[in-house]
Amino acid sequence: MQGTLRGLNVQSDQESILLRVGYWLLPVFFLIMQATFTYAALHRLWYEDLAESIRNVYWFEHNRVYNGGSTMVGWYGLVLGYYKAFGFSPVAAKWLKFVLAGSSWFAAAYVLKYVLGYRKALVPLCAFALSPIALYFNTFQYPMGLDLLFFPLEVCLFIFISKASLRGACILTFCAGTLAMLASMSYPTYLFYLPACVFLLHWVWQTQEKCFWRFALPISFAGFMTPFLCVWTYLDNFSLFMSDATHSGTGIFRGGATFKGLSFELYGDNLMRTLKDFFVAADSYYFYLPESDFSSWLGFISVLAVGILIVLAMGESKQMKVVCLLTVFLMLVALLLPAAGTTTPGGRRSTGFLMGFYVLFVIGWNYAWTVLQGHKRTLALSALSLLVVQHLWAISPNLEHVSKERTLSAEPFFPSDQDPNASLAFWYARAQNGEPLVCHTYREFKRYCRFDEIFAVIQGHRLWNLGLRDELKLFALTEKLQEPFALSFETPSPPPQ
To answer: What pLDDT is stored for residue 380 in this prediction?
Structure first.
């Protein structure tokens, strides 16, 4: 990969020890920043957090998916492994995301160092890792934003492939395919990255004079299909995993998204909502943020500068033009396709657009640093650096927002003004005493109570913390029920009254 495209040649790496140490301390700083955001969000446990990190994981433990809208089994497998290794709490999966974020930032630091060199990589690394959207998404147990964490790990593998022997390259290529499927089954937006992954795989194999068609393509495909085949053999209700007719036809790679028919008015509204999430302020489903990545004049100037520099960089070589056009194409696909037909639009499904922008940012930064001279170089680098200023400026208002953010989808068993662990202790004590789990439906937006999530929380606590596989008898009670309703794995909620 190194040196293949004109303008992406690394310098002799003779930077000072102080610069190198400072560079590798940056991911540590990013981890401290993420820990601050994650800690501030520990009180916030919304429905999707409970569903995607506890309920669906408990069902996955029992070789099943909850329904066709609960098919992000890559994430469930990671969370399940984390619970088995480190124990369960209602907010434990937030720290799993924290670990993934740290791994991703170190991988991004390695990739940028390899491609640009230490000194040149400082600003692009800060711009990417301090993304307000990424810092916010990483506070959720819902797997949105995981594509932003997985892609640097994937690119890191490609670099290792370019350095490895034929045998090592084959093993790493299999791992790259496996990681691509794991990421796609963790959050389906990663599917938008697959053309870029194939392009990079072809690139690193061809530059090493290794046979792409004979080795790389079949081996990577075998690695890609391995997680899918494992899920096929593991799940008892695999047909539901593929398509659930009782849940609007949802299934694998679709999550809870449903196509509501082609309407240009709806499509336009959805697209505008997504763009506002990135360029104004985020205000869509599970995405509420006062300061987004490009939500001020600082971000706008940086975006404009990236656009101008990319146009100039494409004239440098045919290969650079291909890379830029492919990136722009995938950005547009990630932006336009998720807006079609859904009734819950927003930036959470278009994070591929964000990743594509940061790829272009790196190319634009390298072009300004390497090709431009004098005042043009200073002006271009200054305009791009404004994005880091925007991201640093966004930390304070966003952190304040997260610390005060309250539940917008009512969760009667985990109110946001209480510690989720204390809520678990309260309901578990009641359940142990044979007392019903009480929910008042008049407080609920949909006017009925869901017990599926609290059922999984209590049973999961017994299983993952206490090692008790037998099901604790739980009873549900609302003001519409004449007597307590017995809950079970097959019937985790009473029918809506």
So the answer is: 97
Per the structure block, which two tokens stand in for 225? 């299909």
Identify the three-state secondary structure at position 115: helix
Tokens, residue 164: 């490895």
Instruction: Give the DSSP per-residue string, 10-34.
Output: -------HHHHHHHHHHHHHHHHHH
Cα 26 to Cα 125: distance, rounded to the nearest angstrom: 9
Residues 296 and 280: their CA atoms lie apart, in Å, by 7
Cβ contact 26:129 at 8 Å: yes
Cα distance between the two ends of the chain: 61
How many residues in total does the chain contain?
497
Tell me if 437 sits within 8 A of 475, measured CB to CB: yes
Q: How far apart, in Å, are the Cα atoms of 390 and each of 210, 315, 454?
A: 43, 29, 40
Instruction: Report which of 173, 152, 172, 161 is spatially closest to residue 217, judged by C-alpha positions.
Output: 173
Tell me phi and psi for residue 361, to 5 degrees. Answer: -60, -45
**What is the DSSP code string of 165-193?**
-HHHHHHHHHHHHHHHHHHHHH-GGGGGG
State whether the Cα torsion 231-233-237-241 is positive or negative. positive
Distance from C-alpha of 34 to C-alpha of 136, rounded to nearest angstrom: 9
Alpha-carbon gap, residue 45 to 409, rounded angstroms: 10
Tell me how far apart the alpha carbons of residues 127 and 389 are, in angstroms, rounded to a whole number.
9
The 10s digit of each residue's pLDDT in 156-195 is 999 999 888 888 999 999 999 999 999 999 999 999 999 9
* 3-state secondary structure (DSSP) of residue 66: coil
Q: Chain-centre distance of CA 453, in angstroms?
A: 22
Q: How far apart are CA 3 and CA 95, in angstroms?
A: 37
Q: Which amino acid is at 279?
A: F
| 256-310 pLDDT per residue, tens | 665 555 677 778 888 898 999 999 988 888 888 999 999 999 999 999 999 999 9
User: Contact at 8 Å (CB) between 464 and 93?
Assistant: no
pLDDT tens per residue, range 407-423: 555 578 888 778 899 99
Q: State the Cα–Cα distance between residues 182 and 98, nearest whole angstrom.
A: 18
User: Among all chains, which residue has been given the structure tokens 């990671």?
Assistant: 78
Phi, psi of 282 (to 5 degrees): -75, 130
Per DSSP, 216 falls in state I
Task: Find the angle CA(359)-CA(198)-CA(141) to the nearest 5 degrees.
Answer: 65
Is the separation of the CB atoms in 102 and 138 below 8 Å? no
Distance, CA of 258 to CA of 121 (rounded, Å): 41
